[in-house]
Amino acid sequence: MKYVCKVCGYVYDPAAGDPENNIAPGTAFDALPNDWTCPLCGVDKEEFEAQ
Question: What is the pLDDT of residues 6-47, one digit of tens each?
């Protein structure tokens, strides 16, 4: 399952992770640190929805 930022449309794909922010591939969305924010617009995890 992928997660989409409701503000800017960025897609977090757990299979890819977020290497630019030290999030390893295979990291589930629920396992992201609480202070992780959208790499494009900076909003909190609460602004993402499962797709």
Answer: 999 999 999 999 999 999 999 999 999 999 999 999 999 999
- HSE on the CB side for 49, CA within 13 Å? 5
Q: Would you state the structure tokens that stand for residue 4, as one six-digit string?
A: 């989409």
The size of the chain, in residues, is: 51
Tell me the pTM: 0.93
Q: How far apart are CA 19 and CA 35, in angstroms?
A: 16
List the Cα angle 10/3/38 in 5-degree steps. Answer: 45
Helix (H, G, I), strand (E, B) or coil at 44: strand
Contact residues for 44 (Cβ-Cβ < 8 A; gap 6+): 37
CA-to-CA dists, residue 38 to 11, 15, 27, 49, angstroms: 9, 16, 15, 12
